[in-house]
Amino acid sequence: MRTIRLLLALTLTACMTTSGPLQGQAFGGSSSSRVVSPTVVATYRAHENGDGTTILDLVVLWRGSPGWFMRVNGSSSGSGLYGGFGQTYSYQWAAYGGITLMVEYDSARSTAKIRDREISLTNANVALIDGVDSDKPTFLGTQWIDPSLSGTGDPVPTIMKRSPELFDFLRCDLTRPDQAQQMILALICDQMRP
């Protein structure tokens, strides 16, 4: 029964998306968090340009030990937007395995804040965090990848396929002892493979 609940949670989080105006844009956007490998949860945010194109704002790859996101039953997520007078602050959070993942955005300054680390979104749209389930998570750095996205579906596979280094970060080579979990995680990893 526990395996069935975990599989359902993995499947639901792979599809969980919220929509609405983001980053002070006049047009809509999307944000979501989902399991992308045996060790990583990805949190992303994108916005629509109003010309039919969608642009990635940021994807954060939260890596921990294998299966860290399954330690406590359930997951949840949310977001918020505040602003006025040309200033917009927004945030996005998700909870997995008893750990809350939070990203704060300041559109006036074009920055994001992750675990007390501020990054400029003008020269970075990928952030890598390791040891998210440890006492001392490590901010490994940032990268820039092509931010253009197509379609309205989940952009995470598109983003991962653009960079073999990002795919390697996922540690899809690791396996889970539970056969059902391993099968679902292998399917998820196959979606990310360049």
Outline:
With 194 residues, the protein is α+β, with helices and mostly antiparallel strands.
How would you summarize the topology of this molecule?
Elements: H1 2-15, E1 18-21, E2 28-35, E3 40-48, E4 54-63, E5 76-84, E6 87-96, E7 99-106, E8 111-114, E9 117-120, E10 126-130, E11 138-143, E12 148-149, H2 156-161, H3 164-169, H4 179-192
Parallel strand pairs: 4-10
Antiparallel strand pairs: 1-2, 2-3, 3-4, 4-12, 5-6, 6-7, 7-8, 8-9, 10-11
Helix pairs in contact: 1-4
Q: How many discrete domains? A: 1
SSE class: alpha+beta
What is the 3D shape? Answer: globular
In percent terms, what proportion of residues is strand? Answer: 35-45%
**Quaternary status of these chains?**
single chain
Order of helices and strands: HEEEEEEEEEEEEHHH
Mean pLDDT: 81
Radius of gyration: 16 Å
Distance between the termini: 34 Å
Query: pLDDT below 50 for ≥5 consecutive residues: which ranges?
Result: 1-27
* Main pleated-sheet profile: 7 strands, mixed
| Amount of helix | 10-25%
Number of helices: 4
Strand tally = 12
Describe this structure in words.
With 194 residues, this protein is an alpha+beta fold. The chain has one domain. The chain has 4 helices and 12 strands. The strands form 2 sheets. Strands 1, 2, 3, 4, 10, 11 and 12 form a 7-stranded mixed sheet that branches. A hairpin with a 2-residue loop joins strand 6 and strand 7. Helix 1 packs parallel to helix 4. The protein starts with a helix and ends with a helix.
